[in-house]
Amino acid sequence: MVEQREFIPVRIAVLTVSDTRSLAEDRSGDVLVQRLTDAGHHLADRDIIQDEQAAIAEKLRVWIADEDVDVVISTGGTGLTGRDVTVEAHESVYEKHIPAFSTMFTMVSAEKIGTSAIQSRACAGVAGGTYLFALPGSPGACKDAWDGILEKQLDYRHMPCNFVEIMPRLEEHKRRK
Fold this sequence. Notes:
Elements lengths: L10 E7 L9 H12 L3 E8 L3 H13 L5 E5 L10 H8 L2 E2 L1 H15 L9 E5 L2 E6 L3 H15 L24
Parallel strand pairs: 1-2, 1-3, 3-6
Antiparallel strand pairs: 4-5, 5-6
């Protein structure tokens, strides 16, 4: 008999990194909000911030410290140009990297855009018991990341394993003596 699990919604904050967009023009953030809420998760918060490494890292730290945020998904600033500093901001707050996320994202993305997928530095990690994902700034890349990876990994029912089932253990090191 296959184990049947009930869905467990998680609280997700969405951060758009852009020097030019406002909430009204934030198509990538809109894609993420629509997909996460359609999946049954809760939008914990949403913000837009400029491509400034210190400001991005500080926003991540605020959400990591917020008990009402389980996951942060950022969009934008993962490319190769001089203003693309989201990856560096994310990496500065990670306690643990999730390197396979980058690999999976490249695989999913390559199916859609071929070798152009090599230009993304999408990444993921964990800090303070909070999952952090940095996605490219295009709506298509956000759809690919959600549909191809995050929708399943943020669903407790996904087998054989998923991010949600290990959430209670992310900070077990703090209980060690």
